Amino acid sequence: MSFPKRLIEPVLAPDGVLTREEAQDLIARAIRFSKADAIRIHLQSTRESNIRFAANQISTAGTSATTSIRIQSVFGKRKASVVTNSRTDEGLRRAVEQAEALARLAPEDPEYLGELGPQQYVAVPAWFESTAAVSAEDRAKAALAALAPARAARDLTVAGFLVTTARATAIGNSAGLFAWHRSTDANYTLTARTLDGTGSGWAGTTANDWAALDVSGVAQRAIDKARASRNPVALEPGRYTVILEPDATSDLVPLMAGALQARAAEEGRSAFAKAGGGTKVGERIVDERVSLVSDPADPLILGTPFDAEGMPLGRQQWIEGGVLRQLAYPRYWASRQGKAPTGGANTLRLDGGTQSLDELIAATARGILVTHCWYIRAVDQRTLVYTGLTRDGTFLIENGKVARPIKNFRFNESPLFMLNNVEAIGRPVRTAGGDAMPPIRVRDFSFTSLSDAV
Amino acid sequence: MTTRRTFLKTGSAAAVTAAVIGPRGLPASAPRPQTRGLYTDPATRELMMEALDAARRAGATWADVRISRNRANSIQTRERQVTDVVDADTIGCGVRVLVDGCWGFAATEALTRPGVGTAAQEAVAVARANRVAQDRRVTLAQAPAHKDVTWKSAYEIDPFTVPVEQKADLLLRANAEALRAPNVRFVNSGLSFVKEERNYANTDGSVITQDYVRSWVTLACTAVGNGDFATRGPEVVQPAGRGWEYVLEADIVTNARIWGEEAAEKLKAKSVEVGRYDLILHPSQLFLTIHETIGHATELDRAMGYEANLAGTSFISPPEQVLGALKLGPAFMNVIGNRSERGALSTIGYDDDGVQPQDFHIVKDGVFVDYQTTREQAPWLEWWYTKQGRPVQSHGCSYAQSWADVQFQRMPNVSLQPGDRDLSWNDLIAATDRGIAMIGRASYSIDQQRYNGQFGAQVCYEIRNGRITGQVKDVAYQMRSPEFWNSLDMLGGRSSYMHGGTFNDGKGQPGQSNAVSHGCPPARFRNQNVINTGRA
Predict the structure, then answer these.
(1) Is the CB of A2 less than 8 angstroms away from the CB of B90?
(2) Which residue of B has its CA nearest to A148?
(3) What does the pLDDT read at residue B15?
């Protein structure tokens, strides 16, 4: 075996995550070891603890504390990165030397712009002691909120996953930049299935604050959906009016994020490239009620206020009034095109209405309610057509009420077509996936085949 | 601890020939490589023994420990420049325990006696905490202890010894060739390598050290013109459990020009007419359909509901109704689960339960006969193995992506066996009147019980009267797994058998990635539903 020596590994704080001072010290040590023209250190310190259960049983549970230290060394425009998890002097020195050895041999990267100097960042209050302090006993008790009713009911089986994460992210470089952010997260998803195999219901939630995580509410929603979805009937595939619950909207709308990259659009290979050259910026691309924004400081999102280079991330309005307002410019492409760098279309918020899901359903004469989607893959990047399936609670709505469960469908649909066919938009909520998405009602949603999967 | 040690190289691999779509796998029947001189480092062994002792002292009735070094190297390019060079190297320890039939796990980066001891205690504490929510005990199938054994994967040249400039030069020369094709304006290419030194010990007495390498070449060429674009790639060469020699055999510089020309032809190809076609699926495309419809559907944890909250369950369930009863395909269809095919991605000497895997039939003569299992899962099928007169033993499918992750059931190589007659790709085309031949994985999606799948390809050719008439685009087949496999009517022979594979197959919560290959010959499926995915 060939492990480096690490007999004097520094001990972590009790919550298992590096403090600001520890991160600063680690970055300063790496910079001291550097002989390169420039060095950047991207550090993540994570403690993740989880419990998993299925078939009404605890299956696996555990906890891990990990460090990821990515060191990029640069000579001129030659650069390379090394990732290590060693926080000792010896480990850091070894990683810096390896990054320098690789960088010296790497071909020049003409797109390297040098390191950013010191920056100002928005403070995002995403750390909650309540979450950092969650114990294995707390997680087991939370699992019981679903396990106990399922075992008692005798017609249900539940499978769920609860994970609590505490993380610190820091970036520093030889030009004097230092960025630090820490966050906690608790994420819980649950699938309840009826023992006759004909019903399945899913619910999920996420919160930075453990105290705000409604595990009982998730259990109730998933169990109710499982029972309500028993013995689904088959409808013919075709175009339907569809109500997407927020988690289903969250499965589809963020698929646009990649196409929002300016470079691909300006190179003529994205859905936002215009035939004959140029991009669709300034054109109305979706329904005029739609607004799409990335903002790490959004209280519904609480994201990281900088990117992997340490560039501050502010509010970016991608779509306003249905018009494509801007595309995403990383530093190099921004400098080449004479634009301001933006950061990527990261965590997204879709706005456009204030109705609740129940109000959307009540106003629907006939439509299909989708809980969430599964196995979504790109089919055609020219049009952003994706395929995927509905899952864990698909219902026919008639006369403003959930009328009966229906079999799952495969769709071939584009979020662009879908947001052009919007009939109503609800109020955004934080989804299990972390985006802020509303329930929406759209017409002519394209279901292309039936699935027998429950 | 000890200094860096160079592992001994094994004998030469069988020569392989580069094909347009990528190199073939090594002969499946070749023996496993053996090594001498690879053994568990004394300091690592001492830490593993300390972790097991600490677990027992804290109250564990069974425990295992993994200390591994996980290395990854990647270089990415576009057109005439390198965009990223990354070398990752992490080391740590994961301890798994059983306390009163309850699992607990903890992982640490602190490779000291107190560090691994604390992790063991934490794993025991997690297991104890879970007892309040447990009402069934985990029991493990018996497995013989493997004491001081070693294994090395089928690589000859360690890719981590190849200088970065040599890797960059190869990619940039390939990019230049691709850019010579008409209308090809963009090329992205990359090399990715993984090397793991995996140490394992358990309280049964196993002490195992394994040296594992895998390699992947990607190249995507995009032709642009007339307000449209078309891409060939990026999976043009199948990833493999081999080393740098494999990358060289793929001959990507020569082949890049062909891939570029295929992208250019695709840009101008006619859009497919929807309808029913006989499909001839190349192994580079078919492997993924095998993976999705048979590979995932025959994981016992899925069939029993253990993945219901994410990856899903399975149409091949419940076990008592389908084992030995479900006719999955024609009588000449045989599918084998194995971790033994040389150069395949899931090939390993010992799994993460300490089990030495044996090959097993999943589908025999068209009938479903067995699931993929771990030591925890094999006893769930005791009734079936007893009925068959077979021992209750794990098929060796336990895997964790790193020391920081807990092991669970992951896929072995699940391989469709070639037909008796030595038919080739061209023989299948010549025997087809109206069909489409599909090469390379592209868009793929399947439901959570593995019934309804939709699969595209990178390159599709229309077949009329036994001949290829040219490319068609916007092709995908939509199928239902049981009917699809029962429509199989022709199989290529042994010499057309090759591996397709994926570097990153996701499953589990928290999500873990594994790498797996699927051997198969080209095969023909009658009268399949083809849709047109272009809606520009």
Answers:
(1) no
(2) B133
(3) 27
Global pTM? 0.93
Structure confidence by residue, pLDDT tens digits, B67-114 = 999 999 999 999 999 999 999 999 999 999 999 999 999 999 999 999
Q: A-chain residues within 8 Å CB-CB of B165?
A: 105-107
Interchain proximity A377–B308, CB inside 8 Å: no
pLDDT for the residue A240: 98
Instruction: Confirm or reject contact between A239 and chain B (CB < 8 A).
Output: no
Question: Looking only at Cα atoms, what is the longest distance across chain A?
Answer: 72
Provide ipTM, 2 decimals.
Answer: 0.92
Interchain CB contact of B534 with A (< 8 Å): yes
Contacts with A314 (C-beta within 8 Å, 6 or more apart), sequence order:
A122, A295, A343
- Restricting to B residues 173-202, those with a Cβ less than 8 Å away from any Cβ of A are 185-186, 197, 199
Give tens-digit pLDDT for B419-463: 999 999 999 999 999 999 999 999 999 999 999 999 999 999 999
Contacts of residue B88 in chain A, CB cutoff 8 Å? 82-84
Strand partners, B106: A63, B95
Nearest CA-CA distance, residue A29 and chain B, Å: 19
Q: Report residue A79's pLDDT band, with 50, 70 and 90 as the boundaries.
A: very high
| Residues B232/B258, Cβ–Cβ less than 8 Å | no
Alpha-carbon distances, residue A144 vs A185, A223, A301, B1, B363 (angstroms): 20, 14, 28, 45, 39
3-state SS of chain A is: CCCCCCCCCCCCCCCCCCCHHHHHHHHHHHHHHCCCCEEEEEEEEEEEEEEEEECCEEEEEEEEEEEEEEEEEEECCEEEEEEECCCCHHHHHHHHHHHHHHHHHCCECCCCCCCCCCCCCCCCCECCHHHHCCCHHHHHHHHHHHHHHHHHHCCEEEEEEEEEEEEEEEEEECCCCEEEEEEEEEEEEEEEEECCCCCEEEEEEEECCHHHCCHHHHHHHHHHHHHHCCCCECCCCEEEEEEECHHHHHHHHHHHCHHHEHHHHHCCCCCCECCCCCECCCCECCCCCCEEEECCCCCCCCCCCECCCCCECCCEEEEECCEECCCECCHHHHHHHCCCCCCCCCCEEEECCCECHHHHHHCCCEEEEEEEEEEEEEEECCCCEEEEEEEEEEEEEECCEEEEEECCEEEEECHHHHHHCEEEEECCEECCCCCEECCEEEEEEEEEEECCCC
> Residues of B with CB below 8 A from A70's CB?
86
Interchain pair B122, A379: CB under 8 A: no
State the nearest Cα–Cα gap between B494 and chain A, in angstroms: 33
For B532, the token pair is 């047109």
Interface of A with B in 186-215 (CB under 8 A): 189-191, 193, 200, 202
Query: Which chain A residues are Cβ-neighbours of B107 within 8 angstroms?
Result: 62-66
Which residues are bridge partners to B75 per DSSP? B85, B191
- Smallest CA–CA distance, residue B27 to chain A, in Å, is 30
**Per residue in A251-285, pLDDT tens?**
999 999 989 999 999 998 899 999 888 999 999 99
Q: Does B161 touch chain A (CB under 8 A)?
A: no
Say whether residue A380 is in contact with chain B using an 8 A CB cutoff. Answer: yes
* Residue B418 C-alpha, separation from nearest chain A C-alpha, in angstroms: 30
pLDDT in tens, A120-132: 999 999 999 999 9
Q: Which residues of B touch A276 (CB under 8 A)?
A: 227
Task: Over range B125-139, report the average pLDDT.
Answer: 89
Cβ contact (<8 Å) for B5 and A451?
no
B36 at the A interface (CB within 8 A)? Answer: no
Task: State chain A's mean pLDDT as an integer.
Answer: 94
